[in-house]
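User: Thanks for the earlier help. One more: Copper chaperone CopZ. Can you show the sequence and predicted structure together?

Assistant: Of course, both are below.
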Amino acid sequence: MTEQITLPVSGMTCQHCVGRVEKNVSALAGVDKVDVSLENASVAVAYDKSAVSVDQITEAIEDAGYDVGAPKA
């Protein structure tokens, strides 16, 4: 079953940042779609919660060099 989560991400300043986050998160098994918004400083992810966790998604963003806040409702 596909879940949707939007995470606030700080530190992204350009399209290169967007690309790094998209690449890291998309590489995770179970991630169906990644929508990075530079304007909103957020990352929306559609994922299969039986294959990947929010912690793994957060870690992938942090590994790209950005800070992740609490999920938005």
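User: Great, one quick takeaway?

Assistant: The chain has one domain: 2-68.
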